[in-house]
Design brief:
The complex is a heterodimer.
Chain A (H helix, E strand, L loop, with lengths): L4 H22 L1 H9 L4 H5 L1 H31 L5 H27 L3 H35 L3
Chain B lengths: L1 E3 L1 H8 L3 H8 L3 H8 L8 H11 L3 H4 E3 L6
Antiparallel strand pairs in B: 1-2
The chains are: A mainly alpha, B mainly alpha.
């Protein structure tokens, strides 16, 4: 099978993102303190909630980047029609769904237009990943059938 | 379910898997899949090749047995 150049580029970019994300993880409290001054007063009233949402979302995003790195690595090395791809996509759908939930919970207490937009976006991405996982599942079944047709 | 009796016919004709592979042009991997009943389907062209080399009928290779498929 012809190796995908885009998959390789994406894999390298995601590895860089993952490393940067892990490095930033150690400076996360500092980053939070640095940026919190620019928050409006409403955020400072609910700073604990904002902090919890911020750190949880960061960890979830890091896991998503890790999963994407693995996914593109598999696509580059082998083929996209594998069980691992399907399960990775399902896990990412769940992660995006939880991101959407966290952001919407945060938006209930600290309502901003951007929060609602991000939440909706995450929800749509979660749905897209779930649909893609279902498509891959069917594709794997077809591929197995074709592979076992002699 | 459909049973592939390729191993029986091969034994009758005293032909090895490698020899059959060379004569038909079908890879040993695919013949092995057929022999172990793991195949989901078989093309007419494949069946024709096997029948011509083994000098037999499709019914000699394929057999229907009652039971669950897979």
């Amino acid at each position: 099978m012809k190796k995908s150049f885009i998959a390789k580029v994406m894999s390298v970019l995601l590895v860089i993102m993952l490393i940067m994300g892990i490095v930033c993880l150690f400076f996360l409290p500092n980053l939070y303190n640095y940026f919190k001054d620019s928050f409006v007063s409403k955020f400072q009233d609910q700073s604990t909630l904002y902090q919890v949402a911020f750190f949880t979302c960061y960890i979830i995003c890091l896991v998503i980047v890790f999963k994407l790195t693995k996914l593109f690595h598999i696509i580059y090395k082998d083929s996209p029609f594998r069980k691992e791809i399907e399960s990775s996509l399902k896990i990412m759908a769940i992660l995006f769904m939880s991101l959407s939930l966290i952001v919407i919970i945060k938006a209930i207490f600290i309502p901003t237009l951007l929060s609602f937009v991000v939440s909706l976006l995450c929800f749509l991405i979660a749905l897209s990943f779930y649909v893609l996982a279902s498509v891959i599942k069917v594709a794997i079944e077809y591929k197995n059938e074709v592979d076992l047709t002699i | 379910m459909i049973i592939v009796n390729l191993d029986v016919m091969m034994a009758k004709r005293k032909i090895s898997l490698n020899e059959l592979s060379k004569k038909t042009g079908i890879t040993t991997t695919n013949l092995s899949i057929l022999k172990t009943n793991k195949a989901k389907a078989i093309r007419f062209s494949t069946l024709e090749l096997i029948c011509s080399v083994l000098n037999c009928q499709p019914a000699d290779i394929l057999e229907y047995k009652e039971g669950k498929n897979g």
